[in-house]
Specification:
Elements: E1 2-4, E2 11-13, E3 24-28, E4 35-39, H1 75-81, H2 87-131, H3 137-152, H4 155-171, H5 176-199, H6 207-234, H7 239-252, H8 259-266, H9 271-280, H10 285-298, H11 303-315, H12 319-332, H13 337-345
Antiparallel strand pairs: 1-2, 3-4
């Protein structure tokens, strides 16, 4: 006798004669444990033996996931994978690692150099802008070139610098600094000619040369002073104008009304301010020498400071140190005409 569960529809086989023919009885589903009533069918014909009640066969388990169906690694393959590298393989791996490390270092170095170069360009641009804030680019460029020429200190370089400052002052009309630098360049020439004229006083044979130096010194002092005063009127706080006025006063032997002190306060690291201080203190050789040494420290390329130090040595009857200092100037700038003339005026035999 076949019985079907009313809940899960599982099919069961019930032995004939169990519970009596035509009688109702309760059974329990072997799959879902549902209990329900069934009626035994009446007997018909010869007895047919059927197997006893059985629980239905459970469906076969689902196949394992694909990830679990990987083939196992054989012992031979595992041994091969764990086999140690041969010495030549280890050397090759080490060389490859070193090569990779070297390439990484070179790439890092190139990046660092590029960053530093960019930073230098940015800082250079910022520094240029800070030094020449408010000036047109053309005027600032001329001022920069002219200042480099001032450091060479020979007459030709000073004349060229004066011309560049004049162009910058024309381009940046109304700006105090280019006009002040123009006046300062002329005053440097005046100071050089004035010093040579003084050194030739005791040489009657050089009277014509001395007179020429005096004339040129007087002319340049007048023009330089006028330019410096005009710049100071334009901007009373401009340190270049202040040092130019202070130099004009020192060369003329007149008071500067605090211009040098104010310039030193506004630009304490300006080597040219220290040079002007030395000129103003030339009656005190030791104080002047100290100021010139400070100027050389602030700007080692300042040949004017070295020439003035040589002049102090010559005035103190120390031709040896003077000759050495002038030779160094001529080594740095063979065109330095004042150094050549001063060297020729020194005694032939060092004392």
């Amino acid at each position: 006798m076949l019985i079907r569960c009313q809940k899960c529809r599982a099919l069961f086989s019930l032995q004939d004669g169990v519970g009596g023919a035509g009688r109702s009885f309760e059974v329990e589903c072997g799959r879902c444990l549902n209990r329900f009533d069934v009626s035994a069918a009446p007997r018909a014909g010869p007895e047919v033996r059927t197997p006893p009640l059985q629980t239905p066969l459970s469906p076969p388990p689902p196949p394992p996931p694909a990830a679990e169906q990987k083939a196992s690694v054989s012992a031979e393959e595992m041994a091969k994978a764990l086999k140690p590298l041969r010495p030549e393989d280890e050397q090759q791996a080490l060389e490859e690692k070193r090569a990779l490390l070297a390439r990484t270092r070179r790439r890092t170095l190139r990046i660092a150099l590029a960053v530093f170069a960019l930073a230098a360009l940015v800082l250079g641009a910022l520094g240029f802008h800070a030094r020449f804030a408010g000036l047109p680019r053309e005027a600032a460029s001329r001022v920069e070139r002219a200042r480099e020429l001032l450091l060479r200190d020979d007459t030709r370089s000073l004349v060229h610098a004066t011309a560049l400052f004049t162009e910058a002052a024309r381009i940046a009309s109304g700006e105090a600094m280019p006009e002040a630098e123009r006046g300062f360049a002329m005053l440097l020439q005046a100071a050089a000619f004035q010093d040579l004229a003084v050194r030739l006083e005791k040489d009657p044979a050089a009277s014509v040369e001395r007179a020429a130096y005096l004339r040129e010194s007087t002319r340049l002092l007048q023009h330089g002073s006028a330019a410096a005063k005009a710049a100071l009127e334009e901007d009373g706080e401009d340190p270049v104008a202040l040092r130019a006025v202070a130099l004009a006063s020192a060369l003329a032997g007149a008071p500067d009304n605090g211009a040098l002190e104010k310039a030193a306060r506004l630009a304490p690291q300006d080597a040219w301010v220290l040079y002007v201080k030395a000129v103003a203190q030339r009656k005190d050789p030791d104080a002047a020498r100290t100021a010139l040494s400070q100027a050389r420290k602030a700007e080692p390329r300042l040949l004017r400071a070295q020439v003035e130090l040589a002049g102090i040595s010559a005035d103190k009857q120390e031709p040896g140190p003077a000759r050495e200092a002038l030779a160094k100037v001529l080594q740095d700038n063979p065109s330095h005409d004042r150094a050549k003339r001063m060297l020729a005026l020194l005694p032939n035999t060092p004392r």
